């Protein structure tokens, strides 16, 4: 019983502490309610901290974890796009800097190259990779939640063909396109048109492929930020491992929406390159062969630590996530 409340209480205290620091130290009101009325930020801090404690309590149960991860991811995406909509049509109070940013993940690569300057979204993205590894692509990205919605259901069997070729090709095209746009001094209007077109192409991939294959084709084979995450995640020490008790029954494969548990991955006893540490596969394995790994920590504690970090980061994003 005590073990079960340690994690929710820790998330409550940590999220509350971090948001309190932001509320006290940052001059511009970062929390949404504070911008509407003085003291509103404190109400938001208590509400979000409770929400964090509740969610991590639910996610402690391996069988519930995937469902709650998807619920909070969807809530984040709806909330994020609602703020974009309100920022454009109601008031710029809903926007992060008062300026509009295109909410397309590829912009985090193309934008800084094209403008040749740092971007707050890119810095945020890199710090979440340090803290949570690939969780950006399993519960933080507003776009990935849409791909997740399109890919509902049992995935089509077999590996995604030519995935590595497509994902690296798109990443190179985006980088090259941004360099050329800078060299030829493309106007902001045309740069925005190119960014929006790329975002729409992503929707086409979701409609044509993710929906049919019932797996996240957009995130696993198209999005250039997803490809960067696949590489950069190794700066974070958390891993998903398959131990020697695995008898290759393939039950976990149907749970992986990221095409990371194909027969070769399972035979190699290692989830594939596109694994996002979402943890959905754990409950599918009757032998408990799939586990979180963090140095030499016991797997249950490693999973709890990962939940603590990812749910806390999610809650902080959720409290401040404007565009
Ligand atoms: S792959 Fe791209 S769209 Fe998908 S979750 Fe990651 S950053 Fe977002
Ligand atoms: S291998 Fe498991 S943890 Fe990795 S993406 Fe697939 S379901 Fe998620």
Describe this structure in words.
With 323 residues, the chain is mainly α. It has two domains: 122 residues, no CATH class; 136 residues, no CATH class. It is 62% helix and 2% strand. The chain contains 14 helices and two strands; from the N terminus they run ααααααααααααβαβα. The protein has a two-stranded antiparallel ribbon with strand order 1-2. The radius of gyration is 20 Å and the shape is globular. The model has no long low-confidence stretch (mean pLDDT 93). Bound molecules: iron/sulfur cluster (2 copies). One iron/sulfur cluster binds next to helix 7, helix 8 and helix 12. The site of one iron/sulfur cluster (SF4) has 14 residues, from loops.
Sum this structure up briefly.
With about 325 residues, the chain is an all-alpha fold.
């Amino acid at each position: 019983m005590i073990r079960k409340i340690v994690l929710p209480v820790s998330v409550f205290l940590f999220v509350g502490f971090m948001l309190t620091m932001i509320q006290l130290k940052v001059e511009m009101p970062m929390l949404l309610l504070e911008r509407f009325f003085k003291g509103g930020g404190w109400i938001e801090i208590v509400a979000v901290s409770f929400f964090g404690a509740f969610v991590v309590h639910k996610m402690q149960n391996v069988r519930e974890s995937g469902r709650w991860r998807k619920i909070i991811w969807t809530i984040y995406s709806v909330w994020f796009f609602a703020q974009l909509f309100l920022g454009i049509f109601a008031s710029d109070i809903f926007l992060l800097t008062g300026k509009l940013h295109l909410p397309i993940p590829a912009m985090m690569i193309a934008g800084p190259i094209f403008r040749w300057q740092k971007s707050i979204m890119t810095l945020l993205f890199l710090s979440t990779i340090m803290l949570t590894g690939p969780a950006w692509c399993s519960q933080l990205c507003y776009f990935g939640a849409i791909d997740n919605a399109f890919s509902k259901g049992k995935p089509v069997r077999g590996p995604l063909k030519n995935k590595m070729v497509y994902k690296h090709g798109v990443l190179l095209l985006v980088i090259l396109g941004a360099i050329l746009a800078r060299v030829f001094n493309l106007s902001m209007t045309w740069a925005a048109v190119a960014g929006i077109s790329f975002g729409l192409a992503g929707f086409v991939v979701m409609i044509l492929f993710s929906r049919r294959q019932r797996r996240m084709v957009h995130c696993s084979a198209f999005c250039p930020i997803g490809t960067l995450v696949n590489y950069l995640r190794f700066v974070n020490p958390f891993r998903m491992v398959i131990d020697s008790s695995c008898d290759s029954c393939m039950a976990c494969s149907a749970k992986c929406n990221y095409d990371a548990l194909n027969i070769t991955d399972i035979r190699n006893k290692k989830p594939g390159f596109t694994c996002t540490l979402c943890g959905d596969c754990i409950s599918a394995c009757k032998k408990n062969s799939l586990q979180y790994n963090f140095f030499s920590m016991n797997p249950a504690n490693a999973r709890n630590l990962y939940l603590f970090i990812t749910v806390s980061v999610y809650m902080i994003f959720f409290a401040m996530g404007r565009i």
